[in-house]
Amino acid sequence: MRLPDRVYAVCSEVPPEVVGGLGRYAERMMPVLGECGVPIVVFGTAGRGRARRTERSGDVTLHRLTAAGLGLAGNPRLPRALRLLARTAGLLVFNLRAAVRILRAEAGRTRAERLGAVVAVHDWMGCPAGIVCGLLGRMPVVFHVHTRELNAAPERRRPPHAALLDALETVQARMARLIVVPSAAMRDELAAGGWPADRIRLVPHGFEDPELLRLAGLPGEERDRMRREVRRRYLPEGRGRLVVFAGRLSPHKGVHTLVRAVPRIAARHAGTRVVLIGAEPPHTGEAAVLTRSIEETGVAAQVVAENRFLPPAEVFAHFLAADVCVFPSVYEPFGLVAVEAMALARPVVVGPGFSSEVVGDGALRCAHDDPQELAEALLRCLDDPREAAGLAHRGAEHVRRHYSWALTGERTLAVYAEAMR
Questions:
Q1: What gap in Å lies between CA 303 and CA 306, rounded to an integer?
Q2: Is the link from the previous residue into 16 a cis peptide, with omega within 30 of 0?
Q3: I need a surface site. Which of 25, 93, 154, 305 has the fewest CB within 10 A?
Q4: Average pLDDT, the chain
Q5: 397/209 Cα distance (integer angstroms)
Q6: What domains appear along the chain, each with residue ranges and CATH number?
Q7: Which SS3 state, helix, strand or coil, does residue 139 take?
């Protein structure tokens, strides 16, 4: 297998500005690809000046590009519509800057030499650069689709701009040599929607994070000490039941269903606390909607929602402290956060958005987006510690058998090599 001579990756969210799954993917994949023997040039958006604009690690060179508009997108004093417009304009400028850099780097090469390079674009936020490089540079483009939540999430009203993004993704999918997805369920979903099934390749994500592996290997006494520290933040003297959710506070993540499930759980376990780790997507106002839902349901005493992201180490510590971790998504192309909780040998409950292939028999999977069904699944774990322990053991075994970032890197490079043919 002939590997590419070089790879250009356009990924809008890069460390240290990690607020979602795309950022976590970039955070884990860059060290893996940094030892692959192929020069990888990554273009991401610049944060608030805290990180260097360019840095290199092994075979990976990361360029953080500023873009007019992205700064305005974070200004809460502007109307939401203007912030959304500023973000869209900023991402477009970012894409054009990345495309210009790629085309300039390839300008002195022959057509045959350009075929030795691959442009990898991630989600719709990288599609304009991929389309430009494919049309003007005649370069092979690989389209990584991590999520299509704006267009594919069931039972959710599409925002006005979703149709435009759908068209953008469709154009990129038709132009791309190959399309990469993280799960068979997503592959089937895209194929059913008319995307070219013969060009879709399945590359699951890994699970290893240095802090996760450190915590998983802690001696029992140290794990118990950490669990007690976290539990005392939410439970009187650490006594009671702790349920932990992590993810964006968006409706398709199932947080409203979880809130409506709390009264049934609290009726059986009065000392239960449900901790929601995560924040709203930028410029959505969804945290305020969730706060109203908590108040209207009458569970403000049982639910803790701080609307902020925690560093991965803190998230993993919360997983260790939990009696059960819950991710009740109605749409989830892969669900890295659930896989990480399973890797830590924690009992996990997931929503109907998770495919059975991802979690196997290592998590309780709800068939419907239903508060009562979700409450019953959580109570199975809270009522029966032995069943919960067995579930946790199966989850950890499933993750270690099926997922590895090193294997993700190997498969990704194999897709890039195939795209050059």
A1: 10
A2: yes
A3: 154
A4: 91
A5: 17
A6: 6-206+405-419 (3.40.50.2000), 210-402 (3.40.50.2000)
A7: coil
